[in-house]
Amino acid sequence: MGKSKILIVGGTGYMGKRLVKASLAQGHETYVMQRPETEIGVDIDKVETLISFKKQGAHLVPASFEDHKSLVEAVKLVDNVICAVSGVHIRSHSILLQLKLVEAIKEAGNVKRYIPSEFGMDAAKMKNAMEPGKVAFDDKMVVRKAIEEAGIPFTYVSANCIAAYWLGGLCQFGKILPPRDHVIIHGDGNLKGIYVNEDDIATYAIKTIEDPRTLNKTIYISPPKNILSQREVVQKWEKLIGKELHKITLSKDDFLASKNVLDYGQQVGLSHYHDILYEGFLTSLKIGDEEEASKLYPEVKYTTVDEYLKQYV
Ligand SMILES: NC(=O)c1ccc[n+]([C@@H]2O[C@H](COP(=O)([O-])OP(=O)(O)OC[C@H]3O[C@@H](n4cnc5c(N)ncnc54)[C@H](OP(=O)(O)O)[C@@H]3O)[C@@H](O)[C@H]2O)c1
Questions:
Q1: 3-state SS class at 184
Q2: Whether residue 64 has its Cβ less than 6 Å from ligand 1
Q3: pTM higher than 0.90, yes or no?
Q4: Distance, CA 91 to ligand 1 centroid (Å)?
Q5: Which of 4, 51, 150, 246 has an alpha carbon 20 to 30 Å from 266's alpha carbon atom?
Q6: For this UniProt entry, which residues form the secretion signal (predicted)?
Q7: What are the tens digits of pLDDT across the range 238-290?
């Protein structure tokens, strides 16, 4: 497979910067969209990130979601486009902005593959997701519909649970660092989640881009060793710190009762935890080998949950 030109949109974000790194590491000519909003205000970290991309060999491409022509011109520079605009309500949510990008890709007519901002649960399988969290999947489905209606070649990358959000807090809702004393167990704690290191997600996503096997398909990142229940995750942490945590079980009713005092963004997050830890949406996920990233790319040594948790000790 030859090396292509890849445009990354949302490149300074949590997933975006990893996609830029992975694209460069895999030898692609890498372009990163630079929005004019960067010039306003004092988001000095964003500027520093963009400059660091340039130093590593990426090209910065000025373009704006508010300027269709600039988007078309940016897209025309490359073969493939990956978008990683925000989609975590508690932080920022701009998934539907991609409709403008899809319009530009359609008009440019040269893009061989588009990977939209997904990198979570497969939106197509979340029709029964709890409200208001379902909005996250509904918006991603709106984008998918636009991509498919425009006839744009695509790959949807479903990464299940991004590790820092889920493993960091041992799958406790609202926590991103592991406890050393007690832990809330959601329900019986036995339903399985699928936890994936964010750098591995980026590596796999870039791998799919020139792969004919992944054309117009959904690819799942579901590393076999990382399919674990909350209790199994907690056990791994206990082994690492050499201490058993006090377990407090939280019933579904009590968990849901806490929803009303939360703001909208937090309610969206709570819904996702409900779907995974109380309803077992991922426990029932069936994936064929031909659509699972670690099977498609056995040369990638993915990060196991033990390895990931070690950084918090
Ligand atoms: N399943 C999971 O566990 C999980 C967890 C986290 C994220 N995700 C998914 O991963 C994807 C990326 O999320 P992320 O957390 O990496 O995003 P993020 O860091 O919050 O934001 C990514 C980028 O989006 C762009 N952006 C943000 N607000 C914008 C606005 N108002 N207008 C235009 N652009 C804006 C910015 O890009 P530039 O400034 O560089 O242009 C920003 O750096 C989303 O689809 C999300 O749903 C899944």
A1: strand
A2: no
A3: yes
A4: 8
A5: 246
A6: none
A7: 999 999 999 999 999 999 999 989 999 999 999 999 999 999 999 888 899 89
